Amino acid sequence: MTELRTLKVALLGCGNVGAQVARILIDDAGTLAPRTGARLELAGIAVRNLDAERDVDLPRDLFTTDGETLVKEADLVIELMGGIEPARSLILSAIQNGASVVTGNKALLAADGPALYEEADKAGVELSYEAAVAGAIPILRPIRDSLSGDRITRVLGIVNGTTNFILDQMDSTGAQFADALAEAQRLGYAEADPTADVEGHDAAAKAAILASLSFHTRFDLENVYCEGITRVSAADIAAAKEAGFVIKLLAIAEKITATGTETAGNEGVSVRVHPTLLPREHPLAAVRGAFNAVFVEAENAGELMFYGQGAGGTPTASAVLGDLVSAARRIVLGGPGRIESTTGHVPALPIDAATTSYYIGLDVADQPGVLAKIAQLFAEHGVSIEIMRQTIHRDADSNVESAELRIVTHRASEAALAATVEAVKALDVINSVTSVLRVEGA
Amino acid sequence: MTELRTLKVALLGCGNVGAQVARILIDDAGTLAPRTGARLELAGIAVRNLDAERDVDLPRDLFTTDGETLVKEADLVIELMGGIEPARSLILSAIQNGASVVTGNKALLAADGPALYEEADKAGVELSYEAAVAGAIPILRPIRDSLSGDRITRVLGIVNGTTNFILDQMDSTGAQFADALAEAQRLGYAEADPTADVEGHDAAAKAAILASLSFHTRFDLENVYCEGITRVSAADIAAAKEAGFVIKLLAIAEKITATGTETAGNEGVSVRVHPTLLPREHPLAAVRGAFNAVFVEAENAGELMFYGQGAGGTPTASAVLGDLVSAARRIVLGGPGRIESTTGHVPALPIDAATTSYYIGLDVADQPGVLAKIAQLFAEHGVSIEIMRQTIHRDADSNVESAELRIVTHRASEAALAATVEAVKALDVINSVTSVLRVEGA
After folding, report:
1. A334/B339 CB distance under 8 A
2. Which of A154, A314, B301, B371 is 20 to 30 A from residue B236's alpha carbon, by CA?
């Protein structure tokens, strides 16, 4: 066996994921060395508080509060501190020092990715971030490398385990959102302040990253339309279920081409996060609990799906280590880091330019001619109806009848749909619009 | 826009996949160039017969019968001829000439992969073969790169679309194997001579490649136990269905560790292909028709699944082009090709060392004490029973009763199971052993 060189690894942050990365680097050193072509030596761990409790028992002498000095001695830097500063400055310092960087910091990438990628390119080092989207699931590397000769047309991702757990609970138990959220908090799937998850902000940052790699163009958070799951009711879920659908919070990045008059002048990419109906037979519909999955449609490859654990210290550490070993192999071989494939200038489109099918629930007066009136109004707005179903309820006590109307449309633009809904609301036969939800995968 | 350099691409073979690769290289040249960092120029296509019919209309002057000369002028060579020779000689010639090679030739890789990888390493060029396993699905690169910091413990793959289509037909329509095969042939999913597919040979070659990358050790066809689907009956499928299972032909590569006495001295990797029962709720159970999927279990990442189209000219061309663009990017950046991660020396184990659960169907005499006798015999052989269910049938005409016994065992070794089945057969209360099938994913 030839003598292997040693590469020094600096770890910034030692939370949930960081502690597992440190454990694996120490415990699996013997396994990682031959497949890397170098010994990966954990040179130190920078933390804010030396005395904090850790998930894993690690040697005390590895810890330091001086990240800046640690980074300067490293061949490879792993940033798992989260937040913008000091993560950003330490990453820049590492890159300028010639170290390759692995990060899972989606907030930083969504906020300031382009500047970081540019610095890495200039320095000829790798900046990789598989852990930032969908935890353990290899999705960024397949999009960047395996699909580099194809044209991705659409990405649909369940990329937030918290919201998928909540929606799955609501679907399987009939619970209301607030109760399902409480259950998720009790089980540790949701944080005490669940805003970033349930309002879709976490998924939106991931959508921006997925869209950037899929469409070879930099998109940031401002390009992402974002709607969370707080307004999804048990009634919505039940109605969807009855109609053969399941409601998922999807991160969507989709190429829009000008085929119809509605979208003329609107060629580009729609990046969005919103609750979405999926047919129960769609591969994404079977993604239960806190699991994640990303469904990719490409012109040549067709439909692909990547499925696995989207969070958790150990699974996410697997993604970090995959990036680390790949970057280390590149250092061993010599030559600069990877080429970035962000070469395009595809415009990001507003949500109005997206076209999907819609599910619309209406509480209507039980009178003759109501269906015809509504159908006529949809037609006037250029929105074609695929399915229309009316259910009559009779209140046993009052003997008053009410009617519920459920409509699934063909693909229509957001703008056309919004105008239709406004017009429907104004009809005297309409008591209320109970839900408007987008449908994908039908 | 800076002037891009041109890389010459030689294509060997112009069948189903090759013709689509040529089409994409020509039609998408403008898209591929900026994301590659070089213009990819299709310099020529080597074929046996210049006048053969092609799936795609391609410029006549690209075609040549002189593969050897074509290869010598190329920076990148795509081999899609299939078979051992002249594919092998042309690939070696390309490598020695400093060209990176992309191939989808699983037969060649299974037969002579190690010699080819070694030559590529020596020459500092890339030899990539994503298209050889599971068509369009990015699976080899994720295993090689994304999971390089993890330890894979098990891979379960539906990697042959023909057999998955046949089994799915049998499952959904109740058809016998012969009828489902005929339907697959009629629809073009099975070839006139379906041996390579239905006997599991195609899946076995893919299993060897998956095992080699997953366990960092070279395994070849001789290390793979192979059992096809020709003996799977409609009755097997129906019984499995009733018990909540679906039968799939799985390519399995599994790490076996010596935890029990049964497997002592048998540490290593079991690589095998056989019809397998899967619980209907397992993610692989939902893979229908001719689709492929690979389910990967790793120590840190947990469970992952990769799903998509496993065959077809255009989907497979996507995988070829992903490899091509990645190899071209590396040439543009300079520096040698990828490091190979085949560094281990894990032994390949015979099928006897594998442990799985088993489903056993028995036609037994309807007498008191039969169940106890059989249970006793299983216990004596160290095979633990998880579920035992007896169904009594009464023939309306003869009024003769017969009993059917269905047993699902806990995990047991092949050897223990085989001994148990032999002993069961010898019991006087047994009319016949109607099926013995392995169960995974329970």
Report:
1. no
2. B371
Give the type of residue at B423: A
Nearest CA in chain A to B324: A149
Binary contact (B149, A320; C-beta < 8 A): yes
For A292-345, write each residue's pLDDT tens digit.
999 999 999 999 999 999 989 999 999 999 999 999 988 887 765 544 444 456
Instruction: Give contacts of B136 with chain A, Cβ < 8 Å.
Output: 298, 300-302, 304
**Which residues in chain B are closer than 8 Å to A312, comparing Cβ atoms?**
302
Residue of chain B with shortest Cα separation from A316: B301
* 3-class DSSP string for chain B: CCCCEEEEEEEECCCHHHHHHHHHHHHCHHHHHHHHCEEEEEEEEECCCCCCCCCCCCCHHHEECCHHHHHHCCCEEEECCCCCCCHHHHHHHHHHCCCEEEECCHHHHHHHHHHHHHHHHHHCCCEECHHHCCCCCCCHHHHHHHCCCCCEEEEEEECCHHHHHHHHHHHHHCCCHHHHHHHHHHCCCCCCCCHHHHCCHHHHHHHHHHHHHHCCCCCCHHHCEECCCCCCCHHHHHHHHHCCEEEEEEEEEEEECCCCCCCCCCCEEEEEEEEEEEECCCHHHHCCCCEEEEEEEECCCEEEEEEEECCCHHHHHHHHHHHHHHHHHHHHHCCCCCCCCCCCCCCEECHHHCEEEEEEEEEECCCCCHHHHHHHHHHHCCCCEEEEEEEEEECCCCCCEEEEEEEEECCEEHHHHHHHHHHHHHCCCEEEEEEEEEECCC
Q: Is A104 helix (H, G, I), strand (E, B) or coil?
A: coil
Q: Among B21, B130, B146, which would you mutate to test the A interface (most chain A Cβ atoms within 10 Å of its Cβ)?
A: B146
Q: Beta strand B5-12 with A401-409: parallel, antiparallel or unpaired? A: unpaired
CA distance B152 to B316: 25
| Chain position carrying tokens 């990628």 | A117
Q: Cβ of A325 and B148 within 8 Å? A: yes
Q: Say which residue, B437 or A151, is predicted with more confidence.
A: A151
Q: How many CA atoms lie within 13 A of B352 on its CB side?
A: 9
pLDDT at A153: 93
Other beta carbons within 10 angstroms of residue A402's beta carbon come to 14
Domains of chain B by start residue, with CATH: 5-133+314-333 (3.40.50.720), 140-310 (3.30.360.10), 354-439 (3.30.70.260)
Chain A residues with CB-CB distance to B335 below 8 A: 330, 333-336
- Per the CB < 8 Å rule, is B306 touching A305? yes
Q: Does A331 touch chain B (CB under 8 A)?
A: no
B321 inside 8 A of chain A by CB: yes
Residues B272-288 have pLDDT tens digits of: 999 998 888 889 999 99
CA angle B354, B355, B361 (to 5 degrees): 115
Q: A29-77, pLDDT tens digit by residue?
A: 998 998 888 999 999 999 999 999 898 999 999 999 999 999 999 999 9
CA A25, A28, A30, A31 dihedral sign is negative
Which DSSP helix (H) or strand (E) runs through A10? strand A5-12
Q: What is the dihedral of CA B132, B134, B137, B140, to 10 degrees?
A: -50
Residue A248 is a catalytic residue: no
Predicted model pTM: 0.86
Distance from the B284 Cα atom to the nearest Cα atom in chain A, whole angstroms: 11
Distance from the Cα of A317 to chain B's closest Cα (Å) equals: 7
Tell me if A314 and B306 make a contact (CB, 8 A cut-off): no
Of these residues, A8, A122, A206, A255, which one is catalytic?
Answer: A206
Q: What is the ipTM score, two decimals?
A: 0.84
Residue B70: closest CA among B44, B49, B41: B44
The residues of B carrying an active-site annotation are 206
Annotated binding site of B for L-homoserine: 191
